[in-house]
Design a protein that fits this description.
- It contains 5 helices and 12 strands.
- The strands form 3 sheets. A 7-stranded mixed beta sheet has the order 6-3-1-7-8-12-11, with helices on both faces. Strands 2-4-5 form a 3-stranded mixed beta sheet. It has a two-stranded parallel sheet with strand order 9-10.
- The longest helix has 16 residues.
Length: 177
């Protein structure tokens, strides 16, 4: 666990079209609170956001081990839907869930949690275009900008990024005490 600190989280971002603001706002808020952020993608190619932000991931998706992190954070954006049915990502999220880690998703990334079958009977929020898919997985969709149901945090989209990142940061720091 050498390069991972006690308060480490890992973000998953799509290689193409992750949401720049959801990523930068959440990352900067966590880092300002002393939380180390690692970024993973399907590979280590340069990831490109919807608004042209370029970011080189730290690690590959297949290298993620839940014991190294307090949480996994799924960043949304139009490229996220390509990962709703990604077997490796779904298996990885389920490993985090089984290890009782915090799982956070914003915007269309909530659809990945639906595909991982983690939302049945849970209060969640998501991007407005994804509501029917989330409901079909058993999620109880609210109109709130952020929802917390046990260790799963969901947010509706970029307008909720600040509240999402503060909620996530508070939960991680509370666990560390």
């Amino acid at each position: 666990m050498s390069k991972y600190s006690e308060n480490s989280v890992v973000f998953f971002i799509p290689e193409k079209n992750f949401h720049d603001f959801e990523f930068t706002i959440t990352k900067s808020t966590l880092e300002k609170n002393g939380i180390k952020v690692f970024v993973a993608s399907e590979n280590k190619n340069l990831a490109i956001g919807q608004f042209s932000l370029r970011f080189k991931p730290d690690t590959y998706l297949f290298n993620l081990h839940p014991e190294n992190f307090k949480a996994i954070v799924l960043i949304g954006g139009s490229g996220t839907k390509a990962y709703w049915k990604n077997d490796l990502l779904i298996r990885t999220i389920k490993k985090f869930y089984l290890k009782e880690k915090i799982i956070a998703a914003i915007c269309s990334a909530v659809g990945i949690l639906a595909s991982a079958e983690l939302l049945k009977g849970r209060k969640v929020t998501c991007f407005k275009d994804d509501v029917e898919f989330i409901k079909s997985s058993g999620g109880i969709v609210t109109n709130n900008p952020v929802e917390i149901d046990k260790k799963i945090i969901t947010a509706s989209g970029p307008d909720a990024a600040e509240l999402f990142s503060k909620t996530l940061s508070d939960m991680i720091l509370k666990q560390s005490r």
